[in-house]
């Protein structure tokens, strides 16, 4: 498991708890120490990692992906390893990584995930999977512990493309939920009551249901479940992909302005529910 962040750690723990021998790779010594308390062995870099049947990647960016792929394939024998890319990095980065691994005899399946930290903890993630059908059969043993797989196409990059569509919805829906809670406050409503009422009707959404209660508690700051920086990063990837293909994305562009406002206010390392504070 490469990357022990908000998603990687609970995924690795779930695999270890269910009998898989997990080697956790992360430069952060605190994260490695925590992984070891869950029964995993750990390594600082891919240079030190032993050969494995499956390598799951949960890094944050395309450059990080290429760094670990280059390190993992240059200093060790990747042989018949199956790499599963669970990160959202865009089509080009996924395809570049696949080519490099293929040249070394390894394979990569494009399987970006959705479901957030709660989904990772409960084994309820959804993976948008693209790759060779034989490789996809292989990964079911691992990904089945973590959630469900949805086959979206035969080529690496197809999973990333589907994730772009998903992240357009997520970034806009989070902004709409925050805007609605802020409007409730401006109209003199109790935001907690407003969230409870609206989530019972046609105005409900996954993000309003999941993030709305935390948005409504304006007198406190919640612990970070998912950093706002993640969607702020993804919204840039979605826009880049859309512009390349000439797609019309006015709602995404409007939401992007609000994420930029949140960045100006220093909210990106906060829980993503705190986007609401950029409206108040």
Please work out how many helical segments DSSP would assign. 11
Largest β sheet strand count, sense and barrel closure: 3 strands, parallel
Radius of gyration: 19 Å
User: What is the structural class?
Assistant: mainly alpha
Q: Averaging pLDDT over every residue, what do you get?
A: 95
Name of the top-level CATH class of the largest domain:
Alpha Beta
Predict the CATH topology of the largest domain: Rossmann fold
H-E string: HEHEEHEHEEHEHEHHHHH
- The main sheet orders its strands as 3-4-5
CATH superfamily of the largest domain: NAD(P)-binding Rossmann-like Domain
Q: What percent of residues are in strands?
A: 5-15%
Question: Span between N and C termini?
Answer: 40 Å
Low-confidence stretches: none
* Fraction in helix: 40-55%
CATH architecture of the largest domain: 3-Layer(aba) Sandwich
- Specify the overall morphology: globular
**Would you count the extended β strands for me?**
8
Work out the count of structural domains. Answer: 2
